[in-house]
Amino acid sequence: MLVRRYCALQFVHELFTLEHMEQDLQPGQKLARGVSRHLRALGFASVEEFVPVRGLRVDVVALGPKGEIWVVECKSSRADFQTDSKWQGYLEWCDRFFWAVDMEFPTELLPAESGLIIADAYDAELIRMPEESKLAPARRKKLTHKIAVDAARRLQSLRDPRPGLGGELLTARADVETPAQ
After folding, report:
1. What is the chain's pLDDT, residue by residue, as a tens digit (181 residues)?
2. Three-state DSSP class for 131?
3. In a domain? residue 39
4. Is 167 part of a structural domain of the chain?
């Protein structure tokens, strides 16, 4: 049993090494990582690939030190941007909306009213701050709660990648330990 646990821990360690994680990242995910690092330096906590509601998935959602919520959509190429037809649906889920692109991206394609972040896999620079469009208090509360729950579940899954038994363990133990009558 101890050997099996050691092997499992070794696998998890190898799974989360920088080299392994670097190889598996797509270009947009590398931008999201750089954006998340920059936002952390600004006091934000971010969650990548966040689903505010069924059918929408934002690349980065960030919760700021004053409770503000930013959404950052990462685009790695002109084609990536031009085929994105859902981004306007993200506007109702944030106080500010940003595009994150690399240095080679033709930024003149991006809507001028949106924020602009230039990023790479390791950092980012906020170039243009968009106008703030404050969320309604009820939506902010619901969204803040969902961000927190999603972040906590992801952290839990890093520590324990197997889902729980949903209480079945206690039921099974009760069956075993209950003396026959």
Report:
1. 444 444 444 554 454 554 545 568 888 899 999 999 999 999 999 999 999 999 999 999 999 999 999 999 999 999 999 998 889 999 999 999 999 999 999 999 999 999 999 999 999 999 999 999 999 999 999 999 999 999 999 999 888 877 666 656 555 555 555 555 5
2. coil
3. yes
4. no
Contacts of 60 (CB under 8 A, 6+ apart): 32, 35, 36, 39, 46, 47, 48, 50, 71, 72, 73, 74, 100
Determine the residue type at 97. Answer: F
Supply 93's token pair.
Answer: 């889920």
Please state, in angstroms and rounded to a whole number, the distance separating the CA atoms of residues 10 and 31: 29
Q: Is residue 175 part of a domain?
A: no
Count up the domains in the chain and report the number: 1
Structure tokens, 25: 């990242």
CA-wise closest residue to 32 among 117, 109, 141: 117
Rounded CA-CA distance 121/67 in Å is 26
Both tokens assigned to 123 = 């950092």
What range defines the domain where residue 98 resides?
Answer: 13-161
Q: Is the pTM above the cut of 0.70?
A: yes
**Measured between alpha carbons, how far is 130 from 81 in angstroms, rounded to an integer?**
18
Fill in the DSSP letter of residue 2: H
Give the type of residue at 96. R
Which one, of 59, 67, 131, lies nearest residue 100 by Cα? 59
Asked, for residue 88, whether it belongs to a domain, the answer is yes
